[in-house]
Amino acid sequence: MCEVEGDYNGLECNQKIPVPTLNRKCMKCKEGAAVLIIRVNDAFCRACFKEYFIHKFRAMLGKNRVIFPQEKVLLAVSGGAASCSMLSQVQEGLSREAPKKLRFMPGIIYIDDGGACGRSAEERQRSNALLKSIFTETGFPYFIVSLEQVFSLPASVLVPGTSDPDPSNLSYKQAVDQYVKEKQTLTEENVASAVAQLSIGDSVYSHKHKLALERLFSSLKTLTAKEDMLQTLRQHLILHIARENGYSKVMMGDSCSRLAVRLLSNIALGRGAALASDTGFSDPRYGDVVIVRPMRDYSSKEIAFYSRMFNVPSVFISGLDTKTHDKASIQRLTESFVTNLQSDFPSTVSTIYRTSEKLHTVMPPQSQSAEPASKCLLCLCTLDTKEDKASAFHATLVSEQLSQIKLQDLSLDAPGQSAEQCCTEGQGCGPGGCCSSNRLSSHQDLKTLLCYSCRLTIKDMVATNSLPPYIITEAEKRQKRFSLGFRSGEFAGQSSTPTPWSFNQLLVLLAVWAGAKSCWKMKSASSKSWSAEGTMKCSKISQ
């Protein structure tokens, strides 16, 4: 600050701030030489950093107590440093040298999305072979599934399962005590049976499904919609494999830096209502399968240091946003913004991350008679599209309807081409053509089943008929259920009969129609005037 009295030396402002060097002791043991600095003044030696990294993973699992002993957990590995570090931590926790071993039964899944990202068959085979060698060394059962298999998924994937608690496991402590009592030493027979249970899957796909996947992603006009659709399809495929093989938990390798980017990008994409599920430690939106994120306390810098120092094997696999500019998509722009801000202000990611920890999903009071909340067709989150006249969402819908009316008026004035010529030549229609009218109606049909963010993704599609069959089938079921007035629980499992209210309403409509028809016959028979007897009959019938 400027002072009225006192000496002022202008050279002091130009003096450089001393940069911390590595010639210092470890902040934890105070003995070993520091080999890295995580944050501003957190210097660690090699041994203390490894202990710090392992303890962070164990503390995250122990603090939440979501995974019970002997529970089957599926590890979603993408080949990157974060997911491979998570795999290394699980492998470390199950080793003989671990002081407190992990008690769950892990499995590995890798989704080969090369068909959506434009990778060649040789590149996909090369990356799959590298990952297969990594998975084989762990001794865990693994699944290498191609993204093309979403076109053979059943429609039941989009139906949330029931998460009824097991009455035998009343608490986490009782489950641990029961596991300790039933624990047995591994014999040769146990090892042989464990090896026999390894369900090893390869990335197999048909040429027809490959073309269908390419058609689906070519129908999406923006990279933002492509990344959102890719994430949705990957989640559906992981969910199906987990249910099919009895896994009740799925571990994701999302780091703190990744979740900070996702928090801001999801707000920009209109997913504010699902932030707690998308960034929290546990995500119970699927019911019977819970998504957990044990790596959410690690920054990308910590993961990179650990992978480099302890030789954690990983495979670089190009994605949709590889070698794209910063403004290619909303997700890419947000990542560039957070990364550049983090380089100048080191507390940026941690501040955004701590904000996400305070978010919680509003759960309405549940009762046995209450109907379950409607779920989005794609992301399976609770629908956030309740039309309130005093909301920004309602104003957006009104503006969209007015713009569509204006476009329809302009299309009536413009000279249009015949439907036969359009369909035979296979060329694009104008705003009033046959293809555009069909496409608009299909978009409108799906909108009622989607949340706000998924509506924007579908809106960027050229045609919705390129969606996988299980999505279209489930959409038709929900539309029929909505049009017939069924309760969601009746369609899901037990009964397919109409509700008493809709049946009584049908009887009333039939009675009114019969009464009006008989009165019309009486009036046409007597051309002069209404008779007292006919009027009395009509009143009795209407009653």
From TrEMBL:
Subcellular location: Cytoplasm
GO molecular function: nucleotidyltransferase activity; sulfurtransferase activity; tRNA binding
Entry keyword annotation includes Heme: no
Chief localization: cytoplasm
Pfam families: CTU2 (PF10288)
GO biological process, one term: tRNA wobble position uridine thiolation
Alphabetic keyword roster: Cytoplasm, tRNA processing
Pathway note: tRNA modification; 5-methoxycarbonylmethyl-2-thiouridine-tRNA biosynthesis
InterPro entries for the chain: CTU2, Rossmann-like_a/b/a_fold
Any single GO CC term annotated in Swiss-Prot or TrEMBL for this entry: cytosol
Function: Plays a central role in 2-thiolation of mcm(5)S(2)U at tRNA wobble positions of tRNA(Lys), tRNA(Glu) and tRNA(Gln). May act by forming a heterodimer with CTU1/ATPBD3 that ligates sulfur from thiocarboxylated URM1 onto the uridine of tRNAs at wobble position.
Family according to the record: Belongs to the CTU2/NCS2 family.
Descriptive protein name: Cytoplasmic tRNA 2-thiolation protein 2
